[in-house]
UniProtKB/TrEMBL annotation:
This protein's name: Transmembrane p24 trafficking protein 1a
UniProt cross-references to InterPro entries, sorted A to Z: Emp24-like, GOLD_dom, GOLD_dom_sf
Source organism of the structure: Sparus aurata
Leader sequence segment: 1-23
Membrane topology type: Single-pass type I membrane protein
């Protein structure tokens, strides 16, 4: 049991045992890895503005069964997403109201096994996307210092930024998959080693019993002849 706990600690880059709730702040992109105790439910809050798009992706990296329950609740108390005992999931929702959206991970069905969970929250903000760009556009057009159309430059920059962000997200998810696969390999290696040693001990015991039985048989035969 101590070895399993040590392996769980080495797999995560950041492991924090949190209370019932934890505020994630107004960051648009959030990545978090935490340890979910057995028989507990942990909730996190993400501030989101109306008309923004929220993408939530989670994955159980380690723990018996590799499954948790997940719910996403709006500020008004409406349940937007509900998963039961899944190892991973990706959900995209459009925020219809301002406030803190609650992300809850449930491990109450497991009384003995703790789970290591990785999740990522991506906020595609519509409100903050155009403020600074519009000001830059006004200055550039007023001074007439560029020969190319500003909209084309903006579209190209947006495309490059989106592709870079998507690449970073895919790499993060692949790291989570790698951590889970490594945990499964180490856990299976321990089981194979344990049962191999047990079978070896049984074979040695059976061999010793057979040798002892044969020697007793020959000893009894000698006594009969004498």
């Amino acid at each position: 049991m101590m070895n399993v706990s040590a392996e769980l600690g080495l797999l995560a880059c950041l492991i924090l045992t949190v209370g019932l709730t934890l505020g994630l702040g107004p960051n648009q992109n959030v990545e978090f890895t935490f340890l979910l105790p057995a028989g507990r439910t942990e909730c996190f809050f993400q501030t989101t503005a109306r008309n923004d798009s929220m993408e939530v992706e989670y994955q159980v990296i380690a723990g018996s069964g590799l499954d948790v329950g997940f719910t996403l609740v709006s500020p008004g108390g409406f349940r937007l997403v509900s998963d039961f005992r899944r190892s991973d999931g990706i959900h995209t929702v459009d925020a219809t109201e301002d406030g803190d959206y609650r992300l809850c991970f449930d491990n109450s069905f497991s009384k003995l096994s703790e789970k290591m969970v990785f999740f990522e929250v991506i906020i595609n903000s519509q409100s903050s996307a155009g403020g600074g760009r519009d000001d830059w556009a006004d200055v550039a057009l007023a001074e007439s210092m560029v020969e190319y159309r500003l909209e084309d430059i903006r579209a190209t920059m947006d495309t490059v930024y989106q592709r870079l962000e998507r690449t970073r997200q895919v790499q993060t998810v692949l790291r989570a998959f790698e951590a889970r696969d490594r945990y499964l390999l180490e856990d299976n290696l321990w089981r194979v080693s344990f049962w191999s040693c047990l079978n070896l001990l049984v074979m040695i015991a059976v061999s010793a019993t057979q040798i002892y039985s044969l020697r007793r048989l020959f000893d009894d035969t000698k006594r009969v002849h004498t």
